[in-house]
Amino acid sequence: MQDLAWRAEAAGFGLLIAVLRALGVERASAFGGWLLRTLGPRTGTQRTVLRNLRIAFPDMDPAQRLRLAADQWEQTGRTFAELAVMDRLTPASGRIEIVGAERFEAIRQDGKPVVFVSGHLANFELMAAAILAAGIPCQITYRAANNPHVDAMIRRNRARYGVKLFAPKGGDGARELLAGMQRGESVALMNDQKFSEGPEVTFFGQPVNAAPGPSRLALRFGTVLQPLSVTRLPGVRFRLTVHEPIVLTATADKSADIARGVQAVTTFVEDRVREHPVDWFWVHKRWPDAVYAALESEATRP
Asked: Of the candidates 218, 213, 263, which has an alpha carbon nearest to the alpha carbon of residue 245?
């Protein structure tokens, strides 16, 4: 019965992908944006969005926060609709302006693996497409869908634009990343989601735990953390920036070295969010429960 339910769900998902691809890039993006801008504020997740915005921007006018919440719903809807047509949003499409492309070329020519890091900014999938289009072999981490049939469809869709080296999150994925870097393959990881363990660092002035994996890999292989970011431009166009690398220093205190790397990546993401707050994935419950509890306590204080 579970497999039948999964297959039915996968059939609906496949139909949605087919419809979005038939619409084309512009109309698919616009449809996704309209849909979530309309429905998102009516869901329970709207409360998470507004709480996140209050934590990050406590001095922002409440009316401005509501406008930003609506705008980010549209951005999120556009991003998810665009995933169906990502093979038409590669650098070859002419829709991506790459700033710092010479760093991609230097990485490719050097042949030494790096650890690409970023957050869920604008259409974050563009970063994987751009890395691979630059000719850099790279393991892309991902969280598998619960439905194995849907997961297989997602993997096939990603293969259309070159994403073929996957490393699932978790222990097995960590081993694949290590093996990939030993073969000379770079790795790409998102470092802006809630993490129950790892070093405690600061994000928008509040404590969070963040994954130590990227920093640990960079230190182990004597390489750099290479930050990337994406900004959405009008007309389903994007600016992808290859930033200055983050160079980590190995000392006798390995834990402190990793913590410094984790804070550097977290600060990088915060800086990008402050520059273009509408581009971030605000629907995610990023901060620990204690931070949200303190926020509610403050709201009820006379």
From this structure: 218
